[in-house]
Specification:
Blueprint (H helix, E strand, L loop, with lengths): L1 E6 L5 H15 L3 E6 L12 E9 L7 H9 L1 H4 L3 E8 L8 H15 L5 E6 L1 E2 L6 H11 L12 E2 L3 H13 L15
Parallel strand pairs: 1-2, 1-3, 3-4, 4-5
Antiparallel strand pairs: 6-7
Amino acid sequence: MTLLIAFATVEGQTAKIARFITDLAKNAGFDAKLINTDETPSHVSLDEVVKVILLAPVHERKHPKSFEALVASNRDALMKRKSLVLSVGLKAAFASGREEARDYLDEMLLRTGFEPNATALIAGAVRPENYGYFEREILQRVVLLGRKIDPREGAREFTDWDELTLIVIEFLGENGRANTLQPQASTQ
């Protein structure tokens, strides 16, 4: 069985998650096909693909354009397969940000017209070495407001790998019923 894993990445955390999912899928007996939407035409062949995992980060309240273009241009073919959409973002790491993170995912699905079988919010990472002054200030004064996390201390990963494993394994073994997977928020 072929599983398509299509991802976009901005700072590298979503690419890391996509490679992790690829390993999980191969261990579960799937032939995993991994594509980066920034390096692929917006229309892809889904021949022999039985399941799809789509994942992308949220930056400035949206998922990358290349990701949304791939989802929108392949919407009908994607909807004929079992699908899981993972929205990766820092807001998903905190209980107080999960509603907003869900809104970003819902807005992307509305823009693309795609209706996946399952969705989940996945906490991302902070990589301040990649940020300019403005991004660091927004991170510290808006996104991380009130949290004892100092972005000047360097990269910090919030992704819960055990939780991600459970989400992916459940989807790969799922018998086709529609559901929404809701990982628990970090309390940090």
